[in-house]
Here is the input.
Amino acid sequence: MSQSRTTSAPELTPQFCFNETLLRDFLRISRSTIDDSITQNLNALYTPARAGFDPSSTAIRQTDSAAGKQIEPAACQGFKENVLFPSWQVRSDVLNYCAGVATSPDPEDPVHILRQTDSAKERERIVDERLDPYSARVQPREARTESLASLVRTQRGVEEIIRARTWGMVSERCGGSSQGWEESLNRWRESRQLPPTST
Here is the structure.
């Protein structure tokens, strides 16, 4: 399992974040490469030849070859340090950057001028609520920073769920550590002298 399997980091720009389709696609592809196929990735680490051939293994049909078998600790550690944690870190970096973009002023928002125009029209409008009780309700246009902030919150929640599921499978197959994924990832970050992040 080489590092080439991890998804490379995109160029982080506000335009990347505001293109929500591109942002979602990056996260989806990164997750599918590592987390969604975690069983196959872990099975690829298992080396049955190490134990030698067992003639009794041909007596029954093997349906889930390596599933459930312990993986060599060195192979597990290499997978976590060179594939799993870097993939998680790239996604954390992207989400943290986009969260920063979402909380920054956005003078280039194409909806900004439209919202100002709508606001001015609303102030000038005379409403007779007896004739039309719903006319006073205005649906303001959502700023793209608000939309991006909502997307980042949702994707962070998805990350929490996916990482917990992946870490459960890694812990089951690799054994050893009783640490949660957050603590293990933060220890890896410290060893690489990376700052801790919120995702």
In short: Residues 3-47+67-120+145-191 form one domain. The CA atoms of residues 88 and 163 lie 8 Å apart. The mean pLDDT is 78.
